[in-house]
Each structure stands twice: as structure tokens, then as C-alpha cells.
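Notebook, bench 3.
Goal today: get a predicted structure for histidine kinase from Catalinimonas alkaloidigena so we can plan the truncation constructs. The sequence was checked against the plasmid map this morning, with no discrepancies at the termini. Length recorded as 1362 residues. Pasting the sequence as submitted so the record is complete.
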Amino acid sequence: MLVRTLTNLLFLLSLLLSAGVRGQTAPHLFTQYKFHRLNEANGLTNNIVTDIVQDSLGQIWVGTEEGLFRYQGTKFQPFLKDREDTNTLPNNYVWKLFVDEQNNIWTMTDNGVGMYSYQTDCIRRFMPEQLVGGVTSMARAPDGTLYFGRYEGGIWQVRDGQARLLPLFDPVSQQNMNGLGVLHMSIAQNTLWAVVSERGLLSIDLATERVRYLSAQEICGQERLKVFDLYVDAEARVWLGSNAGVFRSDPSPTGAGAFRPVLTDALPPDDYLSICLDNTDQLWVGSRQHGVYAFRQQPEGTYRPSEHFAPSFGDDGISHRTISKIFQDDEGLFWLGTHNGGVNVFNPEGELVRFLTYQFYNPASLSYQNVWGMCEVGDGTIWVGTDGKGINRLDPKTGVVDRHFLPDLQDKAILCLMEDSRSRVWIGTYANGVYLYDRRSDRLSTFRVGSEHTQLQVNDIRAFFETPSGKVYVGTNQDGLYTFEEETGRLVQVVGSAGLDIRAITSTRDQQLWLGTYGQGLLHYDERRGSFTNHHWAQHDEFAKEVIFDIYRDGSTLWLGTRHHGLLAFDTQTLTYTHFADVKRINESAISGVTKDALGNLWITTNTEVIAFDPVQRRVFPFSSNGNFQTGHANYGSIFRADAGFVVVGGINGMNLFYPEQLFQTEVTRNVVFNELKILNKTANAVNSDVFPAGKSIFLTDRVMLDHKDNIFSIGFSIPGFNVSKQNEVAYRLEGYETEWQYGANDAATTYRNVPPGHYTFQVKNLQTDTLTRQLAIAIAPPFWRTWQAYGLYALVLALLIWWFNRFMHSRIILKQKLAFEKELREKEHHVMQEKLRFYTNFSHELKTPLTLIQGPVNDLARTIEDPDQRQYLQLIQKNTRILLKFIERMLEFRKLEMNKTILNVGRHNLTILAQEEAERFAYLAKEKRIKFGFYCESELHAWVDLEKMQIILSNLLSNAIKFTGEGKAIHFGIAQHQEQLVIEVKDDGVGIEATEVKNIFSPFYQASNSVGAGGTGIGLALCKSLVELHGGTITVRSQAGKGTQFRVQLPLGKDHLLEKPHVRFVVTDAETQEAPRWADSEQQLAADESAVNDQVMLVVDDNQDILTYVHSLFKGEFRVITAENGKEALEKATHHIPDLIISDMMMPEMDGIALSKALKENMATSHIPIILLTAKNSNQAKIDGFEIGVDDYITKPFHSELLLARVKNILNKRKLLELKYGVNELMDPATRQGSREEDFVLQVEAAILGMLEKGTFEVPELCREMGMSQTSLYRKIKSIAGVSTQLFIRKIKVKRAAQLMLQGQGTITEIAYALDFADLKYFRKCFKEQYQMTPSEFIAAHPTAAPPQDDLMQAFLDVKK
């Protein structure tokens, strides 16, 4: 322990002597070291460093216990083992790194050797079958032979692709070293030096492979020696760092001199892990416990200590005490690999920019980090004012800071300092006025508000200035300008300056001052005249309020640092300003300080950086915190150039000192390196991509070729080596894609998206030299469809398309002409067919009216005449009338099919009955023609069909069979179920159909050639086909001329195929029960004047007088019949007479039956009247339209009188049921109404009656006015709906309301009777008993439970009555 302490003291003594010598020859500024720490924040995920090397591109490689890392400007790129990728490290534990002449980086790992090649940009394992296990070291002979040291023992020699183990036997000492681990190797003068375990050192002559063993005893005098580093210098001397100190051999003719210890008196006992001789022959030694030592060789060959760097919290010391590797790069920077502290990088010459600040662990640092007022005094020291911790005194030659200087000011905020010509230092504070320190007498004086020798009104002092004549001026914050009177020793305010906020003062000649103010711009003060003059640089209110933080006088030019307009130049002779609007970096920044160096450059401080500005060339040189400048903004006016030429800058985080010339002398020594190309976010290299030229990666190539799909890519680039402390920012752009340069980085990865095909150049330039440093040509190939081959193909295809189009258009014109002709022909045929149909339809419609007038009277006569002969004639008339009607109905049905207006009324029917009926009917006809008629049918055969349409189909098919089958022949008619199909077959042995005519047999109006004379219209089979297809079925025909014809109809049995079809309507097939017989009300009429209108009235409407006469004759015994000849006349008579029933024709002039029915149903007075329409149209759509507006029934012309009488009787019976409904003893509930017009009317009348009862007055005429009807019309409507007179209906409503109020318990019987306008209680009881068959008291007793919640209606009645 005593030995170690004495050794440390001797080292420190020698270090101080060395520093003293250096101090005598040192420049004016002290040397400051800064250790830049690289660790996890920079991507170095493992901080135990085993080796550091540099390749020929300048890239630094770091080996660690967990991976290999390449430093790329500001961050590390990792190379780690990946089990799924063979092009990665063999093992993550790296023993040693080696760079060969081809710039390949060899990595010795714990499981083999990996070799990184810039040609492939990946690591490949070297001889993985032979070099296995831990490989600790590597050496390369001049002839290219490789040597690898094995941790398990032995040395591999690799020559011409063959590997073998060297024999390690020393014939002199008879020692065999083949089984001992080799830890370090190096080659010097054709000799391979190798450290073997802890046993010593091997020297192998590469020419003869002669082995010489130097034991640990021979080297250090001990049995064991742990050698941590083997270093061979340029003079072939071998250095060993070990646990026993540092040893060095002197070269001998045999290449193996004796080893001797060195630095024994200068180094404490420790493990010395790394040795390095720098480019100035200074020796650097890294230790395990004591950091790093530096020794400078003396002329006599000895080494004197020069530096010792120990661990420190800040960057002024190393990050860890254990230095495992010392490496100096080709720019002279040292890279220190530590054991758990990452990598430290520093400049052995010291930082160009010195940085001082407060360090809590360093008592020799500044007392506070915020530096404001500063000045250089006569003894060469720099006085440093802080914002709250007084003044520090800095010796710029040694860097020593005196914190405890002037203890009276140690808690003061110092804003400005100045030494005058009398060696007095003027000190301006923020809140304590002015201090004046006389360096000669060591006397401190004070001037503050209230002091005896001052007129100060504020203690905030911002500026000092001494004129050439020795007069001192003081600028204050908002208290103007003061001057110091030497005779009286007083501070006196300059007249006219009160209120000014002065931040800077200078003069161009004696008695002419220039003041920079806060808020009033630049002021000129003429001391002789005692006047102040404003000099605004533009006539605008904005510029009149300019803030000037600093002024630097350069001859007759004043350089002004302003807040809002950057740097301004003011010519005091011409009184004009120069504004550097084109220099954005100083035009858009707030300038806090200005000074000038010996080269003519202005040094400017802003909120973010320090800038050098060449005013002649208008060039800007920015210096950021990368160059050791402090972060944050500089304080106002805190910059000056010392007499020795260095510049001092104060800011919120400390102060900087530097020689401007040194910053401009720094040259960029390396070009930019492209280090990564990502395509679609995947890294591309020579192994996994073919975008590079053969044998080149992104590092070596000057061009890449991308596919059109690769239009999203990024390019990574950096400046090799360590660049944090260098001002070598770059800009980049993709020429051809963008025109503007992108700024702000010395390494970056820029991404471009959706770049179109074309040729581009990615360029990087250095901002300091404004020259291009690297370019990369990028070609993006167009897709195949945009190549010249594709364009040629397009032209060929286009020509073919034009030829084909011309040919197509020519054939199209011919085809269009043919189609036009065919269309015209078909239109003519269609027109002819439509005319035929229209003629037949209109003619059939016209026939229906006379047939009606024939059929009706004939039927009546047939019932009354008993003469057999006359009855025979009448039956003949009836038969032929029915035949005519049959043809007419068929024609009208076919017309509806043609116009797509046929509606199927589908129900589930038993077709067995229909088939039997048709078979019986046509069997009689077949018997008359002596034709055999066969019929077969399954029992109970049900299907979903329209029964009427099925009858038409069967009738047509059987009729045709009878018609075209001769005497003695046979007809077979059958209907059956086959699977899920209904099958109908009609087969005859008749004349048959020609084969050429079969295809037209279902065409409208088509008749076969052999049917001439057989009669018919040619629409029967067409009608059948249409009806079958409407049912979703098919009809087929097989025929042979002379042998007969077979028709087959197939229909689906179910109804699923008919669902959601627009032409299908499903109907109920069960017969409706007849209504109850007419119910008559025996209620006597209450008013005598109403008896005349109580008879039943019928209105008959038709434009045919015969129809009117005929219907009148049918009903004249039961009704008072009124007639009208058109709808307009009928509407007027219906409104006037209010008939009980209306029978109207459908087709009439002026207003047809549908329009008449709609008008009647929309009128409240006539909406209740039943309407029967007579029509010759058998149209379902017309019927649907009528039913939708409220028509009660349809009767098709011609009609039977019995049918009309029965329909009228049925409607009147239903009307009586309606009377029963509204005669019940309860008021109607709107919530349960079914939406009929009669219900709406009754509800409206009930509401009107109850509403008038609430008002306390009620009369029938008022009710008529409320309903908008005459008294007669109201009477007939109420009579028709309810079966009682108006007065009786009103009385029933009142009694019903009384019963409702009783159930709700809203008053006594007397109160309720009085509220409902019953003047006599006995009369009320009589009426109540007639309606409910019990007295009110009995009614209340029969309903003991309460009804719905009570309302306030009873109270409202009583209130009205009162």
C-alpha cells in the first residue's frame, strides 16, 4: 500500500513538472479535454469493449462481448448472430478484430471467424469446418498467409485455402506449446509473436518456422504472467501490458531481444490492459483500476508523465476506470474502449472550443452556469459575471477559476462588466446598482438608489462605456443615461434621458454617443448640445419600437444586434441602414451579441447557435453544440474578443472560449459514405438484391438500378469517424426529383416515396466548403408497358384494332340495314296484330251491352212463359247468347294477356272436380259427333292455380280436340300427378298438324292449313300457352299429319314458385257464410219533419236508357228510384238526395264510374253509401282500383236480374249489421278503430257532441255546422249508419257518456245528469233504463270495480254549468 501511494505521488509530481513546462510554451488559452461518451444511447448495446479498429473508408469498428458494431457518424450499426441467417456473426463474443489490405474486417469470436466484405455488405463465416471453437487473435504475413490463435491451444496457419496447425515446439528449451491457449499475436520483421496462456511468449520465424519460447520467468522473473496486450511499434519493439506492469523488448539481429520493465516508477501496481503509441510518439497505457496514462518520450529515451485521465461524472473525465482498448484513428482522435462504460472519444490536442460551466462535483468550476456580464482586465484574466452567484475570475492560460473572488458580490446578479483606463472595474448588477472596484487599491465602492454619491432611481444596470477622453457612461433599465463625475465621484443622470432603457453604448468620436435601447431603437446623443436623436431604419411604428441588444463599432459602421430584424448595419456618416434580408439565418433570428475577429468575420450569438458571418461575401457559418458550444441562447451583450484574439461567449449554460482562426482551419478530410439502401423498408445488399453492380455494395458503388416497383426507397449516409466536434454539416437532395437542398444533418437516412421511373442523382455536399462530396446515380426502370418494345406492340395492336374496327363498322352498317328492314317488317306485323286485337276488343265490348239487354229479358221470359214451343225458342236464344259471350270473354282475356294486365287469383283447388265437370260437358259433345271419349283422373288432386284460368285451358284444348277429330275416332283426356308436377294430357286421333306448322301453332291468330272451314279465331292455343306460362308451367305439342295430336301441360303443384310474383294474388277458397237477415229498428221517429226522408232511395246511373229502364223496373217496388245518365249528374243527385244505394255503369261520358265512386267516398256526406258498378270490362285491375277507393261490388255485363237483386239485398243486410255495431252501449274507442270512413264519421260526431256538451250549450243546427252538412244530409247519413234519427243518436251518446262517468266515479247521478244537459232527472232515468235495461243505481251496483283513471271532464262540466 505504501509503495502504491509513493508511486502515485511521484507520478503527480512529474505530471506537475511537465505541466509547468507546457504552461511556459502554451498558447493564451488553456487546453481542455472532452471525453465524448458513446454507449446505449448511440446504439452500442454492449458496453464491454474488447477491440477497436478502423477500415480504409474511415469507419470505426468496435468489438464487444455481445456483438460487433460499426460507428456511422452519430450511431452504431450492430452486427449480431442470427441463427436463421448464415451471413451473420458466428458468435456474439468478439475476441479480436483485424483489417486486411482489401479492407475486409475479420472478427475472431468464441466460435470461429467471420469476415465482413464491403463488396457484399455482410459477414460470412471463414472456413467454418476447420476454424471452430474460440479464436482469440489473428495475424497476416506479407505473403498473405493467415495465422489464427486458438483459445483451446495452437495456431492455425491458412495458406492457399488450406489450414494446418503450426508445430509449437522449442528445440532449445524442449517446450511443447501446442496445448496452450494463444491469446494475442502480432507480426514484425517476418517474426510472429504470440502470447501463450500465462506461460510467456513465443517467437516464430515465419521463414523457417523455428520456435523460440520466452518464459514468464525470463520476462518478469515470475512463474506466471498474465499478458493483456501485445503491441509492436514501428521500430519492431514489442510492448507487453500485463498484471506485472509494462514490458518492452529491444530489437536484435535475430528479432527477439530481451524484455525489460518500463515506467515502473511512474505507474502504480495494476493490470495494464492496452498500450498505444500515438502519432507524436506519446505512449498511452490503459489500466484496470486507474484509467489511462500518457507519457511523453524524452530525448534520452525515458518517458515523462504528461496526462492522467481518471473517471468523472462529467465529460471532462473518462466514463469508467477500466480501459480495455486504446486506439488512435487516422485523424488523431483517441477511442478508449472501457469495461462497462462504452467508448470514450477525445482529441489529445484538446478541444478547439473550450466550455466552462458549473459542475457540482468540481469545486474549481464556475460558481453558476448562467454567465452574463464579462470583461478582460489588465492582468490578462477574464472576469465572469453570473446571474446570481457573483463574479468568477478565469485565468485563460491555465483554465483555473477563482470562485471566491470579491466575496461581497457572491450572491449578486452581474449583468455587465467593464475595466476603464484607470484600472477600475465597473460592475453592473440586476438589483444592487453599480459596484466600482479599483484593482490598484483593492477598494470596492457602491452606487445604488439612495446612496450619497448618486442620482440613480433604479438599481438595474445594463451597460458601461468609456469614451476616448476617459469619461464613463452608465446605461440603466428605464432610468436613462448616467455619467460619472471624476471631480465629485458622483453618478449624474444625463439631462433628457429619463425613462430610457439602454442596453448598449458606443461612440464614433468624442462627445458623440450611440445608444442601443429596448423599445426605441438606435439613439444618437450629442454631449455638446445635450440632445438625443432617433435613427429608425424604416418609417414605420413597428421599427420605431425596435429592441437593440448589442452594438459593435467597426470604424464608421455600427453593427446592431436586434430582436425583430436580425443583424443591421448602420453607417454613421450617411445615416443609412443595411438590412441583410437575403441571409435568412441572421435575418430571421434575434441577435443577442456581436463582435469581430481578425479575419473580418462577425461573430453573432442567437437563441440557438453561434454564427460566423462574412459581410463581404454574405456567407454564414453556423456553429452548433456539436462543436462543444453550449446549448441554449447566449445572454444579451455577452460576447467579446480578447486582446489575444480569442472570442468569449456567455450564455445561460456557461461560457465558451475559442480562436476563430482555428475553427476555419479545420478541413474536411473524408467524403460522405453511403452506408445503407432500403427498398420498401428492407435493407438491400449484394447478397439479397441485384440492384448493385457486380462485386459492389452501397458503400462502393456509384450507381444502382431499381425496378419500377422499387419506387419507395431510403438512402443512409454519414461521414466516417467521429464528427461531433467538427463543423461539417451536409445538405442533400435527389437531383431530378427535387430542386431544394435538405439541411440539418451530418448523417441521415432520407426516404423518397413514389418516385416515377427515370434517372436521378442523389447528391451530398458539405456546407462549409459548399462542394459535392458524394453522388449516387439512381435509375428506376420503367415497367414493361412503358418500354419502347411495349410502345411498338401498342402501335401494332392499335393498327389491328383500327383495321378490325373498320371491318366491324362496315359489317355493322350492313347488319343495321338488315335489322332495320326486319324491324320495320315486324312493326308492321305487330301493328296489324294490335289493330286486330283492338278491333276485336272494342267490338266485343260493344257487343256486351246489347247481349245484356237480350239475355236479361230472355231470362225473365223463360221464368214466366209456360208454352213449351216458346220456351224452346227462348232456350235457343240463351244458348247462342252464351256462345257469343264465350268468344267475347276469350278475346278480352287474350287482350289482357297481350297487355300484361292479367292477374291470377290463385288458391288451393281440387282439380278433380273441375276435370270431371269438363269431361262430362265435352263427353256429351263427343257423343253427338260419335267420337270415343276417354277420361282418367286421380282422386283428390289439389294444386295452387287460378280455377277460372284452368277452366279456359281445359276448355280450349278439349274444344280443339272435338273440332278436329272425325266420326269414329277417339279422344283421350287425362289429369294426374307426376312427382311434383301436375300433368294434363289431351290426345286425339284427328287430322293432325303438318310438321312445318307445329312451331307456329301457339302464335296468335295462326290457323293450320287443314283447319280451314273448322271455324275459330286462332287465339285459343296462344291464350292457353300464355295462361300456362303465367302459372309457371309449360305446354308442349306432338302431332303427325293424319294421325292426330297430343297436347301436354305441366304445372308445379306447390305455390313457392308463385310467391312475390306481381301478377299473382292469393285468395281464400272457402265459401263465405251469409250474413244475418236484415235487422229493423222499431225506434219511432222523434221529429215529424224527418218522416218524409225515411223511405229507401236508390240512384241508378248509366248512359244507356234501356239499362236505366230495365234496372228501374227491377227495384221500383222496393225503392224510390232516381236515375242519372252520367257521373257528373249522378254526383249532384247523390249529394242532394243521399240515396241508400247507388248502381252505376263504369264507362260513361263526362265522369266514369271510378271517378264518381272516388268523389262520393271522399265526401263525408256520401262516403257511407254502398256502390255497385256495372261493367263490360272483365279487368281485375279495374276491379282492384274500384275496391281500393271503396266500391262495394262489381257485376259484369250481361248480368242476371236474380244476381243483381241478390247482391243488392246482401249489401243492405250488411248495412243493418253496421247499424247493430254502432248501436252498442259503449262509446267508440279511437285506439281500436279499424280505419273505415264510417268509424271516422261516428268518432267525429261523438267528439263534436261531447265538445258542445262541455261548453254548456247544444243544438242540432250547431252540430250540422260543426260537421259541415245540411240537417237532411246529416239525418240520412246517421240513419244509414246507425239506423236511428239524429235526435235519438244524440240522446244515446249522452246516455253512454253518463254511464262512462258513473263508472269513473266522477260525481253523483244528479250531477252527471245535470252536466249532460238532462233537465229532468226522471226523464234521464227513463232514457237510461230504455238503453241499458236498468236504472242508473242498478247500473252502478252491477259495476262495483273502478274503471280507468279519473279525468277532469266531470269537473269541467260542472264548472261550465256554474
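The first helix runs from residue 2 to 25. The chain has 23 helices and 80 strands.
Flagging this for group meeting.
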